[in-house]
Design goal:
454 residues, mainly beta, six-stranded mixed sheet, four-stranded antiparallel sheet, globular
Length: 454
């Protein structure tokens, strides 16, 4: 009788744990929209969630420390005229967030360090170019101020955000684009389309480099992400509506390296890949679990590790960048799970007895500093991401990359490029407003004294 050898892996015992109730974000009305995006974005400063809004679209941005019950009157970002479908924080500036909406526009917002104190209705930049609702957003991983948007008009636009203009328009998809993402250095785009085809695209030329038809036979949505070595992991459905996960080599797209069937649930599997550990987390929309796998170079390539299960189903999921984790607790991932009325952080930990820094768990990871500017990137320059060490717990050594906008080139209002008010005009209007406030204050003071004398 032969002994069964268990594959050795330092991530075999990773376990997930929800935080205590007082560390959740409660009483938030998460959006009821039936759209298969994450509905949540998070970074080391803020957590953002798409919420229900009457007469337009809104999302809420909370400082990470603002846990507990959130007041109904807490201000939101509410500049869109249609429901918000996707949001994503800029990887190079934690205060900048992009939003895509049913109103066909993409908006860029700047959140103050302390969070919002009043509703935010005016974006820093409004990007208009799509003619159908915008459902997918993705910032470039290494180039500063480059944003990709994909809409229901089957078009991908690459925006030079600082200039407020569409730099590249990619119109090669015959049907709805389910997902679009960058590779590690942003030199390639990977898309999954309703025609069941995966396409690897040159982003500047807008041409297809590799494509694979019928990756998953089922008619439900497909999702795909790049692995760090250039391979592609996809999730989809079989003809019998069983959920599948597959690994592909774009250089040899004929057959998958592996294709595994998971279960028969109907929720779309959202993949979150950690290039530092090689672990991929699959979170199903409407599921109450998170499965995680380790992707390696040895067959069967995608190795099942374990599953985090809970009672409540998830309406969306946010994934914390590596620099926002607590390294002294051996935390290798943190998710922000959206329920009907709350957001619950879930911490993935590797059990270790030592309190020392675990170098094997935390190789140098992608930092917040961009390695190339937008104009350089559009001209053809590629650059690998700038890495940082997490040894002392990440502390920013450089000031967050300032979000510069060339105001003269922008159309920030829906009516177009309105003439910019000069500074003196702004000052005089503020002075007039201050005068009115003083008059109102004096009247109120008189009224109070009259009432006290009665």
């Amino acid at each position: 009788m032969s002994k069964r050898v268990v594959r050795s892996s330092k991530y075999r015992h990773v376990f997930g744990q929800a935080v205590k109730a007082d560390q959740c974000y409660d009483d938030i009305r998460i959006s009821q929209m039936t759209w298969d995006s994450n509905f949540c974005s998070v970074n080391p400063k803020f957590v953002a969630m798409i919420v229900d809004a009457s007469g337009g679209g809104a999302f809420m941005v909370l400082p990470l420390s603002k846990t507990g019950r959130i007041d109904m009157s807490y201000p939101t970002v509410c500049g869109h005229t249609g429901p918000v479908l996707d949001i994503e924080f800029c990887p190079h500036n934690d205060n900048i967030i992009a939003s895509g909406s049913e109103d066909c526009s993409v908006m860029i917002w700047e959140i103050p360090d302390s969070g919002l104190v009043s509703p935010l209705t005016d974006p820093v930049v409004k990007l208009e170019g799509h003619c159908r609702r915008v459902g997918t957003l993705s910032w470039h991983p290494t180039a500063h101020n480059v944003l990709m948007s994909a809409a229901c008009d089957n078009v991908i636009i690459l925006w030079n955000v600082a200039r407020g203009e569409a730099a590249v328009r990619i119109d090669i998809h015959p049907d709805l684009i389910y997902s679009a993402c960058w590779n590690r250095d942003g030199s390639r785009i990977l898309t999954a389309c309703k025609d069941k085809t995966l396409r690897v695209i040159d982003p500047r030329k807008g041409t297809v480099i590799h494509e694979k038809e019928k990756t998953h036979e089922g008619s439900r949505p497909i999702r795909a992400v790049f692995m760090s070595d250039g391979k592609i992991l996809s999730t989809g459905f079989s003809r019998m509506s069983e959920r599948q996960v597959a690994l592909w080599d774009p250089k040899n797209f004929g057959e998958p390296l592996t294709l595994q069937e998971l279960d028969t649930s109907s929720g779309v599997l959202l993949p979150f890949y950690d290039p530092d550990t090689g672990v991929v987390y699959l979170c199903g929309k409407g599921d109450s679990s998170i499965r995680y796998f380790e992707v390696t170079d040895e067959a069967p390539y995608v190795h099942y590790l374990s599953m985090y299960s809970s009672k409540e189903s998830q309406k969306g999921m946010g994934y914390m960048p590596k620099r926002g984790l607590e390294v002294n607790k051996c935390e290798i991932a943190r998710f922000y799970k959206l329920h009907e009325r709350k957001c619950e952080p879930i911490i993935m930990t590797v059990p270790r007895k030592s309190d020392l820094f675990q170098e094997d768990l935390y190789p140098d990871t992608i930092g917040p500093e961009p390695s190339v500017e937008a104009d350089e990137w559009f001209e053809g320059k590629n650059a690998p991401p700038i890495l940082i060490s997490l040894k002392d717990g990440f502390t920013s050594t450089t000031k967050a990359k300032e979000f510069k906008v060339h105001k003269s080139l922008l159309k920030t209002t829906s009516s177009g490029a309105g003439s910019q008010q000069n500074e003196s005009g702004e000052v005089s209007s503020l002075q007039a407003e201050l005068k009115e406030l003083k008059v109102a204050m004096e009247q109120l003071t008189k009224r109070v004294s009259q009432l006290e004398n009665k």
